[in-house]
Specification:
There is one protein chain. By secondary structure, this protein is an alpha/beta fold. Helix content is 37%, strand content 24%. Strands 3-2-4-1-10-9-11-14 form an eight-stranded antiparallel beta sheet, covered by helices on one side. Helix 3 crosses helix 4, helix 8 packs parallel to helix 14 and helix 17 packs parallel to helix 20. It binds 6-O-phosphono-beta-D-glucopyranose. The site of 6-O-phosphono-beta-D-glucopyranose (BG6) has 16 residues, from helix 10.
Length: 608
Amino acid sequence: MCGIVGYIGYEQAAPFLLKGLEKLQYRGYDSAGVCTNDDGKLVVQKEKGKLDELKNVTDDGKNIKGTVGIGHTRWATHGKPSEINAHPHLSESGSFAVVHNGIIENYMPLKQFLTEKGMSFRSMTDTEVVVQLLEYYYEGDLLGTVLKVAAMLEGSYALAIMYKGNADEIIAVRKGSPLVIGIGKEENYLASDIPAILEKTRNIYRLENGEVAVIRRDSVQIMDYDRNPVQKSIERINWDIHAAQKDGYEHFMLKEIFEQPKAVRDTVETRIKNGRVVLEEVTLTPEQIRQFQKINIVACGSAYHVGVVAKYIFERILRKPVEVDVASEFKYRDPIIDSKTLTVVISQSGETADTKEAMLEAKRHGSHTIAIVNVVGSAIACEADDVIYTLAGPEIAVATTKAYSAQLAVIYMMAVCFGDILGTISETDYQTYVTELLALPDKIQSILAQSESLKNIASKMFACKDAFFIGRNIDYALSLEGSLKLKEISYIHSEAYAAGELKHGTISLIEEGTLVIALVTYGNLFDKIASNIKEVQTRGAYVLGIGSEEHPELRNITQSSFLIPKTCNMMLPSLAVIPMQLLAYYMAKFKGCDIDTPRNLAKSVTVE
Ligand code: BG6
């Protein structure tokens, strides 16, 4: 997520802008910039890298004049991290400046239109289209031009706009990405998030989707795109700065668990056009895809668990053999791969050394590599032949949640897209998959709405010493992630086991009161797993069943249960992982663990 700040008052703007951006650094970024109106000239200073670069070259903002300005920290989605792609963006003549948080989904046709009108672009960003549209349409009515351009934009965006000929206004537009306005004394502020302005004021307006604000030193006018005034009451913020960075959630992990509907929606919706899954990032031709004889998947940790889920999905839908490797093992097992092998590399950070080394090993054997990565411009993203970005936004908590869910969504889209090319899925199934993909965010949301029931279940379980996660087929793949989540943040020993395998040894560990979490969402094997549940219960286990609404009878055969909404088999993991994330979170919370930064763990291990 990018960060936006704005200031209009009688003090020098730049020092405040930089301080505000500092408070938004936790959102993750790769470049930063500020723009002020210095006596009718828009002055921009922007740098790739950390905010310190910008503070050094501007002497903490002291050498940038102007009492009205906007600032930005960029989390790259379109166009790699660079000074050129950093915000603020100026229009061709330097008359307009814009900072943006979000995704302009229709920026390509708009860019094409402007290029045909003779306008030239400097950056690779979607944002530059906005500032050029303002220039193209401006005929003297600043607000009218902003409203006209805003109505042309598709996607999610928060914008802050300045015009060089008007040093008395900043115009803010919100659709999808957050924006708050801080109310000061003879000065007002704008930010993506409350922490940026908390030192100045605790009185804010929250802009809602489809609202535009004209911010002056002594007034704030809010309206809709049709200029209908919107009445807002001032909201008083009583949080401290740390609570504000988590948007009121107690931990970043909980905030990110609740950001999953948006992470999945942003990752999916930009890749479904007219009912078809379009993976523009994949450079392979249909013929090349048809030539692959095998798929290899390499990753670590939770990303590896996505790979195990992917194996079940790809083999079932693409009818190609799939091998999944823990990246640190792959390179050293003399893998049998060649140009007929497709290698899928999964990594949130894009910097995990084991995964990068495994990818390079695959490339050395002539395998085409497709990376699924969350950080634009990261090492793995740069080295892979193709990269499909998850648009989950920066993930701060060490234990991944929203990136895992976004990675699953990419796997589903690959299965549908490649299955269509290979002719292994019917048009009916294709439509079902697309419908279910688009419905996923709301279904995830419906589970999040039941978080209290997971908290209640966790309150009965957090004192356990061991936990077993069991499942069959895709539920087994999912149990791996449930087990790791619990271990990572609660330090409770946990194992994931193929339910059918338990009786061949490990069931010896089951005794009175042992906690067993049975994943029972894959309906085709319900009776099989039901007998596995019976097996452990007869030895004293306490079983929590996580199943589907399609089999409510689960309630009758387990001591407690949680049912997820119906969806197609392929997408069950995206729903069933949510209760397991919440269970792990609340068990760790009841134990008083350090949830966002668990002992011994790193968000990304950049050494082998
Ligand atoms: C581990 C993290 O260090 O690396 C896990 O603790 C993560 O949460 C794993 O899944 C892989 O990281 P990445 O960035 O390659 O997905």
